[in-house]
Design brief:
This protein has 1 helix and 24 strands. Helices cover about 5% and strands about 45% of the residues. The two termini are about 40 Å apart. The protein has one domain (about 35-255). Mean pLDDT is about 75; it is low at about 15-30, about 260-270, about 270-275 and about 275-285. By secondary structure, it is mainly beta. The longest helix has 16 residues, at about 5-20. It has one helix spanning about 5-20; strands at about 35, 40-45, 55, 60, 70-75, 85-90, 95, 100-105, 110-120, 120-125, 130, 130-135, 140-150, 155-165, 170, 185-190, 200, 205-210, 215-225, 235, 245-250, 255, 265-270, 280-285.
Length: about 290
């Protein structure tokens, strides 16, 4: 049977690859890319209560363009369990609690982080909004921040960590390692006595706001991390002791793989595996 020119060209190519030990890659799947999230706006509020349920409510802010809302709620002295917290906003978005952290043995402070990325399963409702956070007793302080460019196809929450500390000047926040590039990291912290001088800082982060009283301080900060990696920054310029910290991270939205050829690309590898130059042929189809 007469062989076609195409057959001989193919045979020549395969022979060349085998004897050169080369590897040929056809189309291959491109890794998923992530666009970095971005800060939109924020607000805060404090409510000083002593024995009964206490609610802090913010003023109105414009969250237009946001895909993620995050509320950090702090309970002052009294070992308030973060599980008792409730939060809401005037636009009726759906809020999720991330568990929180309370340090009854040392500071008596509780920190809780809530977030919203949808409204009853639909898109997040944004625009002019106010926010409220409540705990069952004692003082309450809240910081609310909003972000664009975060994951909306499913729950964006990724990592969390917490801890308590005893330092008169500062401490290293609990370490977290986001799983994708461009994530939002929320670093929440508080201490039990005195008023900070206003110079509280967290290395590499932007401080969201300081809620202070004569017995409790709330200081929260955020970072949009361009490249995923371990984050364990240092809080500094804290004049007193008895600190707690709670950290959450939220995924950025995927920008998808780079456009490829239409259809199901096939990946083919040729190379030899020993001195006899035996041919190894692997093929599979990308999904």
């Amino acid at each position: 049977m007469q062989k076609s020119l195409k057959f001989y060209l193919t045979l020549f190519l395969v022979t060349l690859l085998v004897f050169s030990g080369a590897t040929y890659w056809g189309y291959k799947k491109t890794p998923i890319a992530y666009a970095a999230a971005a800060y939109v706006t924020g607000t805060s509020a404090v409510a000083a209560c002593t024995t009964s349920a206490c609610t802090a409510t913010t003023g109105t802010v414009d969250t237009t363009g946001a895909t993620l809302l995050v509320m950090v709620i702090h309970g002052a002295n009294g070992c308030q369990n973060p599980a008792s917290a409730t939060v809401s906003d005037n636009l009726g978005n759906t809020w999720t609690q991330q568990g929180g952290f309370v340090d009854c043995a040392n500071s008596g402070i509780g920190i809780d982080i809530w977030y919203s990325y949808n409204k009853s399963g639909g898109a997040l409702s944004t625009g002019n909004d106010t926010f409220s956070g409540s705990m069952t007793s004692g003082g309450v302080a809240i910081n609310v921040s909003s972000y664009s460019g975060t994951q909306t196809s499913s729950d964006p929450f990724d990592q969390k960590n917490s801890g308590h500390f005893s330092s008169v000047s500062g401490f290293t926040a609990p370490s977290v390692t986001p799983s994708v590039n461009g994530e939002v990291i929320i670093n929440a912290a508080g201490e039990i006595t005195g008023n900070p001088a206003g110079s509280v800082a967290l290395t590499g982060y932007t401080v969201l706001g300081l809620n202070t009283s004569t017995s409790y301080q709330q200081f929260d900060a955020y970072l949009v991390q361009p490249t995923a990696g371990a984050s364990a920054p240092t809080w500094s310029n804290l004049p007193f002791s008895g600190q707690v910290a709670y950290v959450n991270t939220f995924k950025a939205a995927s920008s998808g793989p780079s456009p490829g050829p239409v259809g199901k690309p096939v990946l083919i590898q040729f190379n030899y595996i020993d001195k006899d130059k035996k041919l190894t042929l692997k093929t599979w189809t990308s999904l």
